[in-house]
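Appendix B, record 7
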Amino acid sequence: MSTPANGSRPLAALAIATVFGVGYVPVAPGTFGSLAGLVIWWLLPSSAAIQAVAIVALFVAGSLAGSAAERHFKKTDPRYVVIDEVMGMVMTLFLNPVGFKGMVLGFLLFRAADVVKPWPANRLERLHGGVGVMADDAMAAVYANLALRLINHWSASHLVIWSLMG
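Structure tokens (predicted):
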């Protein structure tokens, strides 16, 4: 997906990497990319198989598009690339039975994990090209998914979190 000889930009790759322009939002593009991920998760059928295929497809497409975007912007993990946040949100909510409050909590947990990047997420972002762009967010999503599971399990018997959020 390199730039063609005629100088045109790799438009398809940039459209995927920026989630059709969401990444160009001037303030907090990662947050807006995560919101786009919520919309995509909400639109997906609740089938575990379909969501798993979507996650793999997002990772592969994001890795390819992320590499093209890095070449285009001449920068590692450019802020405009938000396909990783979309995948991260779908992964965070994967197999988690949540309603609206759970979606919001998943969003907050993923954003926190994505910003803090606890080990090994901070190591994975060092991987080369688009794989590095996607892998650190995938690991942050694993942390957020597990945290959401624990909270859901704990709150099912205690209901404190949900009563505080309601």
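Remarks on this record: The mean pLDDT is 87. The CA atoms of residues 32 and 98 lie 21 Å apart.
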